[in-house]
Amino acid sequence: MLTTLWLLLCFALPVHESPFPISCPNHKHCQLALLSNNDIILHCNAPGAQWQFLTPLKTTWASNSTTNLNMVTMLNGNLLIKNPLPSHTGIYNCNDKDGKKVMRYEIDFQDVVTLHITHKDLDQKPLQNESLSLSSKQFVFTHWEPWQDCNRCGEPGERKRLGYCYIQESLENPMPCWLYLGDEKLWSSRLRPEMQVETCHIPCTLIDAKYVIFDNFQLRNKVGSAWLTCPLGSIYREKGTAISTSFRTSVCPPPLWGFATEFVLLRRPVLWEANNLSLTWKDQLSGKSISTIMDSSNGGSWLQVFQSAIYRCFVQQELMAQFNSKVSVDPLKFLVPEKSKQQPEAEKTRKENANSVLKGLNVMMLVGTVLTVLGCLFKQFRFSQSRKRNKMFLVK
């Protein structure tokens, strides 16, 4: 019963993305780079968990409270970070109720606005390694993640991989750029993340479809566009071991209060179609796609559309949502003009009918006049014949 009510609530609410889970399965200390503006959940398996956020400085770390509006400690102890900014780069410590440190995350939220996107089929090149201006011993490079899965099967599709800015100094272990630099006032076009795309081909396998969202959209605002969101889509690659959370894998927004049921939340590549035609990064980067824009900040999970059509999104070749264009009918806008549009036609018809009547009357008047004249002439002729007969009688 609870599941049924939740599903009904899901279809009554708009489509949202759910956060990407982060965990360190076999370690208590993780150092990683992520992208800003993409929600995440940091795992901490500790009753009564308390989180502490430290911001990086040149020689030390400054303590900061996690009572920030975009940070929420969940009932199961995990930390939800919504729409993280580059300024949220730092250390996230999870302590149990006794104050003992359980987990430590060092995270560099690299600015997704500066994301450098290239496509292999367009001969676009990724960023090259460069020396850092601070010292000749330091150089900047891109640490590439493995390729993500192909977003289509049976036909040519696309796959992508993310690359993060890292700095290495001599024989030291490389570090994410802004964890290394701290609050150093340094700007370079090389200090940014990357995304590379290429064409791929994979065979199809049987897919067990579960829930599908059907929604309507309407072109709005001055630009005449609308934003569509593909549920469970993500810019990140599916992790080998994802965390168990209290969020359900339905296509609706996860309830922050949580359910007891646990699951493994998976992230897979997104594919959009417009009227059964695939939308590709290749067309977008080459300027061929003019009626849609896939948002690069979330790997194309958001789609901006500029014309009415039937849009469908797939995650790992599984249909997740379909969006139909909705036309609003305004009686004042449509019925009145329709009426005014019909009035000239009716007026024209009335004029034609009136002209026909007038023509008929004219013909009738003409016929009547002719008959009247003929009648008068016939009467006059008979009167003349009668007078002649009378004269003949008088002569006799």
Low-confidence stretches: 1-15, 240-267, 390-396
Largest sheet: 6 strands, mixed
Structural class of the secondary structure composition? Answer: alpha+beta
In the CATH hierarchy, the third-tier topology of the largest domain is known as: Immunoglobulin-like
Membrane topology: Single-pass type I membrane protein
Organism: Bos mutus (wild yak)
Signal peptide: 1-17
InterPro entries: FAM187A/B (IPR039311), Ig-like_dom (IPR007110)
Write up this protein:
- With 396 residues, the protein is an alpha+beta fold.
- It has three domains: 1-12 and 206-342, Immunoglobulin-like; 19-113, Immunoglobulin-like (Sandwich), CATH 2.60.40.10; 115-203, no CATH class.
- The protein has four helices and 25 strands.
- The longest helix has 65 residues, at 331-395.
- It is elongated and about 145 Å long.
- Keywords: Glycoprotein, Membrane, Signal, Transmembrane, Transmembrane helix.
Secondary-structure blueprint of this entry?
Elements: H1 2-12, E1 20-22, E2 29-35, E3 40-42, E4 50-56, E5 61-64, E6 71-73, E7 79-81, E8 90-95, E9 101-110, E10 116-119, E11 130-131, E12 138-144, E13 157-169, E14 175-176, H2 177-181, E15 194-200, E16 213-217, E17 226-229, E18 244-245, E19 263-264, E20 270-274, E21 277-279, H3 281-286, E22 292-294, E23 302-305, E24 310-315, E25 318-325, H4 331-395
Parallel strand pairs: 1-3, 2-9, 10-15, 16-25
Antiparallel strand pairs: 3-7, 4-5, 4-8, 6-7, 8-9, 11-12, 12-13, 13-14, 13-15, 17-23, 18-19, 20-21, 20-24, 22-23, 24-25
Subcellular location: Membrane
Transmembrane segments: 360-378
Keywords: Glycoprotein, Membrane, Signal, Transmembrane, Transmembrane helix
